[in-house]
Design a protein that fits this description.
This protein has a single domain (2-490), classed as Glycosidases (TIM Barrel, Alpha-Beta Barrel). 42% of the residues lie in helices and 16% in strands. The protein has 18 helices and 19 strands. It is globular and about 50 Å long. The protein binds 2-acetamido-2-deoxy-beta-D-glucopyranose (NAG) (4 copies). Its EC number is 3.2.1.188.
């Protein structure tokens, strides 16, 4: 059966491959560079309310009509909970070295704290053991948007300081339980997306903002949530360093989303607007982690609404990442713009995003309207992290491009546009590592066409297609392209 599947995979890839060749190889990148794909628990596991898992804030959020264009839920998604072996086998065939996945907090602790759920704990044991048996290195994220619903009901989740010790206890449990085999930990994925979309515009669970149906205050809550996300991250890192790092010898970090913001014109006003955009996104988290306090620009523009770190908190947060994951997809122009309609995180930037200059689009648009193909922005983003934050150890935690969810077989497998994207973006990454950025790995988003949050299943980012009726996996042309790059390992 295994052999048959492998043959089907290889012959399909050979038949459908129209993809361009590439001059990239493992030798293009530093020694021991890691290639992999990324996912998150909620997006791939399915079985959202089975095997003892407690609900998370997304289960509740998706119940309101219109939450996704296709009324999607994560009840089943791509059922990785049962099909993880297929997925790991596909990683091996492509020649990947690593897989970035997240642990569902409410699958481990259905009530957020207290008694653990043995079925959930055992699932991650199986996944990790199967990966290691197949030489796929686990990169494990502890939080990817999926707060246990109970904690939202009890104390408004990330708005309360109570979330800090609760998250730290969950992290402690994971280090203790899996840390003998997991050497690459990430506390929180994209705290900015959580704080700004969860509490600034209500686009993500728990759906809070000024005027939102679930309540909220767009001028204050994003900063409070962001503050607690940073403190929770730092508390988990402290536990790892105090109790586990000596015996387990791993690394721990955080994953941050970072669009590159290019000034629309090279006037002082637009240059400063682009600077603010970078400080309000990456800098919001990376500045405290590097320097122990929020960026001066944010302090100036947000004023009293921006919480402050105590001396002790500042010491905990500063230096709290051995490695920083950068999730990068696209680039926008920015112009100076003061939006006085109401006070909010988005308007605090005093900047407006623009998608063309002199009538020329910044890049080709993907299926997702927000995603423009702008490879040169990737180089600038990585070099910015290197130059501004003391050249930290980095991974690229996410990078990829989508196609329409209505693409069907076999057409959906011919993803030349995706090969072009990866080829151009990886060339820019090579340029950045050649220029001294300390990037040690690259994770494509995503292995599978999975549940894409507010897009439901109407957007496909996978390099592997999933038949939503049978859950059979069909590798796309881009898997064959990756196989060329990672060849020497695949053929060992
Ligand atoms: C989603 O659900 C709403 C409410 O039940 C319904 O009106 C709408 O037609 C559904 N949309 C789709 C794409 O199924
Ligand atoms: C998903 O599961 C929830 C809880 O069991 C249920 O209320 C809902 O109807 C399910 N949705 C679908 C589309 O199966
Ligand atoms: C935060 O601390 C800084 C440095 O001590 C201080 O300048 C600033 O006014 C404080 N901000 C608030 C909102 O308390
Ligand atoms: C100004 O802010 C409001 C409220 O956040 C928003 O709806 C509007 O789109 C913004 N305008 C511009 C031009 O950014």
């Amino acid at each position: 059966m295994e052999l048959l599947r492998a043959l089907v995979f290889l012959s399909m890839a050979a038949l459908v491959a129209h993809g361009r060749d590439t001059d990239l190889s493992r030798d293009s990148f530093p020694k021991d560079f890691v290639f992999g794909t990324a996912s998150s628990a909620y997006q791939v596991e399915g079985n959202a309310l089975k095997y003892g898992r407690g609900p998370c804030i997304w289960d509740t959020f998706l119940k309101f009509p219109g939450a996704t264009p296709d009324n999607a839920t994560a009840n089943v998604t791509v059922d990785e909970y049962h099909r993880y072996m297929d997925d790991v086998d596909n990683m091996v065939r492509v020649g990947f070295d690593a897989y970035r996945f997240s642990i569902s907090w409410s699958r481990i602790f259905p009530s957020g704290i207290g008694r653990y759920n043995k079925d959930g704990v055992d699932y991650y044991h199986r996944l990790i053991d199967y990966m290691l048996a197949n030489k796929i290195t686990p990169y494990v994220v502890l939080y990817h948007y999926d707060l246990p619903e109970v904690l939202n009901n009890q104390y408004n989740g990330w708005l309360s300081p109570r979330v800090v010790p609760d998250f730290a206890a969950f992290a402690d449990f994971c280090f203790k339980t899996y840390g003998d085999r997991v050497k690459n930990w990430f506390t929180i994925n994209e705290p900015r997306m959580m704080a700004s979309h969860g509490y600034g515009d209500g686009f993500f669970a728990p759906g809070r903002c000024s005027g939102c149906r679930f309540g909220g205050n767009s001028a204050t809550e994003p900063y409070i949530a962001g503050h607690h996300l940073l403190l929770a991250h730092a508390a988990a890192v402290k536990i790892y360093r105090d109790k586990y790092i000596h015996a387990q010898q791993g690394k721990i970090g955080i994953l941050l989303d970072f669009v590159w913001y290019e000034p629309l014109t090279y006037t002082t006003e637009d240059e400063f607007a682009a600077h603010r955009a970078r400080e309000f996104t990456l800098g919001w988290f990376m500045h405290p982690i590097t320097y122990g306090h929020y960026p001066e620009t944010m302090q100036k523009f947000v004023g009293e609404r921006l919480p402050n770190f105590t001396e002790e908190q500042s010491r905990l947060v500063q230096g709290s990442a051995d490695v920083v994951g950068i999730n990068h997809y696209t680039t926008y122009y920015v112009k100076n713009y003061e939006n006085l309609t109401h006070m909010s995180y988005a308007n605090d930037w005093h900047a407006q995003l623009v998608y063309e200059r002199n009538g020329v689009p910044i890049g080709k648009q993907a299926h997702s309207k927000w995603l423009y193909v702008v490879p040169w922005g990737f180089y600038k983003a990585v070099i910015h992290v290197k130059d501004k934050y003391r050249n930290p150890l980095m991974i690229i935690g996410e990078n990829g491009i989508d196609q329409s969810g209505s693409d069907t077989l076999p057409h959906a497998l011919y993803d030349n546009f995706r090969i072009d994207y990866f080829d151009q973006y990886l060339h820019e990454l090579k340029r950045a590592t050649d220029d001294g950025a300390r990037v040690t790995g690259y994770f494509a988003w995503s292995l599978l066409d999975n549940f894409e949050w507010r897009m439901g299943f109407t957007s496909k980012f996978g390099i592997v297609y999933v038949d939503r009726k049978t859950f059979t996996r069909y590798p796309k042309d881009s898997t064959r392209w990756f196989r060329k790059i990672s060849k020497d390992v695949a053929d060992k």
